[in-house]
DNA sequence: ATCTGTGAACCGGTTCACAGCC
DNA sequence: GGCTGTGAACCGGTTCACAGAT
């Protein structure tokens, strides 16, 4: 399969969300135009995005809501459960551990790690904070798929190196630091500082 | 000034971070190549980004670290303090309220709001959760610039409409819901569900 | 000699427009 | 007639390559 742009994948997630809403409302079929209106894109964009993966619609008719949902879930890899673990049981890690939204899409948070002796052993939601030294063996034993990194910036890269070495191939980092990973690993970074500075820039340059 | 791509602004933030590191290390001058190496871009990209705002370097020499830092801070609007407020004192709102990283870049969190009577009046870091009904008047009175939205998805759009109507022009949302704002308002959205689904997609399509 | 600043070429994602099917 | 699927045109961000300054 040829390379797919990240923006496309993001839109597919969005479409899926709308399809689920539509399904709940009992609609059986939907057109690219209707999907586009919900998501703030164009019908051509929707059709192009979908066409990258196959032909899911019927000309003159539109898309079957349930079929397209199923297809999108398949494309996005949501047909299974992913084992997620959190590294860092500070404020952000704790908030992540107790975040409800993960479960309903098949992302199951099954472990939280920290180095601080004071934090290890403490309950967090329905988990208990584990010692970071156990992380590597747990990754193999529990088949951990996705790492959520919520640690101070200076700890980020060494920890990434450790989880990558232990076989993890997907990381979502909240650490405000640039991180490097080998090509077979996918890293996404949420950096609040950057987001705020983009807002600051926009406020200052309001005289667009 | 012509329109600047968001990716450019994000890189400027990155450059600024590196410049501060360099400054701390006592370097007086830096080349586009050195900046690029740190940030994982190319020297041409660095020069192009900067050239959009003026000529900051000296040919044959490079850029003055302190001058360029100052210029970037100016461009990004970091020469002043921004008043930030948080809407929603749940898990995520609480983590945001206690996040240290904001202050050091001039983003000052000065109020937290919620609707839940049980949460109103409770301390959060060195703030006290305020009643959401006071939000509009506070926005004017306290000159609140930036809203951080940490509320359930169904509450997001109505609250955005309220803060926009009260004069806020910059919003960072953590709510997993699509939000619409008028053109004079800048909205950034951090959506954990999308990030995870992009990772899921990457894991499933590892046969790149 | 070195490194910046920038027009030109390039590339990839988005939009257009229309042929094809229901 | 309505809506999909898709090659072609378009557009804007990135990369190239070189002229210009120190």
Describe the overall structure.
2 copies of one chain form a homodimer. The relative contact order of chain A is 0.09. By secondary structure, the first copy, chain A, is α/β, with parallel strands linked by helices. The first copy, chain A, folds into 2 domains: 6-75, Winged helix-like DNA-binding domain superfamily/Winged helix DNA-binding domain (Arc Repressor Mutant, subunit A); 82-194, Rossmann fold (3-Layer(aba) Sandwich), CATH 3.40.50. In chain A, α1 packs across α2 (32-39). The termini of chain A are far apart. A 7-stranded mixed beta sheet of chain A has the order 6-7-5-4-8-9-10, with helices on both faces. In chain A, β2 and β3 form a beta hairpin. Chain A is built from 8 helices and 10 strands. At the A-B interface, α1, α5, β9 and α8 of A face α1, α5, β9 and α8 of B. The structure holds a DNA duplex (22 and 22 nucleotides).
Backbone CA Rg of chain A: 20 Å
What is the average per-residue confidence, as pLDDT of chain A, rounded to a whole number?
95
N/C terminus separation of chain A = 41 Å
Write down the CATH topology of the largest domain in chain A.
Answer: Rossmann fold
Dominant shape of chain A: globular
Write the layout of secondary structure elements.
2 copies of one chain form a homodimer.
Chain A: H1 6-24, E1 29-30, H2 32-39, H3 43-51, E2 57-58, E3 62-64, H4 65-76, E4 82-87, H5 91-97, E5 107-114, E6 123-124, E7 127-131, H6 135-141, E8 146-149, H7 153-165, E9 170-173, E10 186-189, H8 192-204
Parallel strand pairs in A: 4-5, 4-8, 5-7, 8-9, 9-10
Antiparallel strand pairs in A: 1-3, 2-3, 6-7
Helix pairs in contact in A: 1-2, 1-4, 2-3
Chain A binds a DNA duplex (22 and 22 nucleotides) through residues 5, 7-8, 31-33, 41-45, 47-48, 50-51, 55-63.
């Amino acid at each position: 399969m040829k390379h797919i742009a990240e923006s496309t994948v993001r839109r597919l997630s969005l479409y899926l969300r709308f399809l689920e809403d539509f399904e709940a409302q009992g609609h059986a079929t939907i057109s690219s135009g209707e999907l586009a209106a919900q998501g703030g894109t164009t019908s051509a964009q929707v059709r192009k995005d979908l066409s990258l993966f196959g032909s899911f619609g019927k000309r003159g008719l539109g898309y079957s809501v349930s079929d397209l949902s199923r297809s999108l879930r398949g494309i996005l890899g949501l047909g299974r459960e992913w084992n997620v673990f959190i590294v860092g049981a500070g404020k952000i890690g704790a908030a992540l551990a107790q975040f409800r939204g993960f479960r309903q899409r098949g992302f199951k948070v099954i472990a939280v790690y920290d180095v601080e002796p004071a934090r290890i052993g403490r309950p967090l939601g329905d988990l208990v904070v584990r010692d970071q030294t156990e992380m590597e063996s747990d990754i193999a034993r529990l088949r951990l798929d996705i790492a959520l990194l919520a640690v101070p910036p200076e700890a980020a890269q060494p920890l990434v190196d450790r989880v990558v070495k232990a076989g993890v191939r997907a990381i979502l980092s909240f650490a405000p630091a640039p991180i490097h990973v080998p090509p077979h690993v996918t890293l996404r970074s949420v950096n609040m500082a950057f987001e705020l500075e983009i807002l600051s820039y926009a406020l200052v340059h309001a005289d667009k």
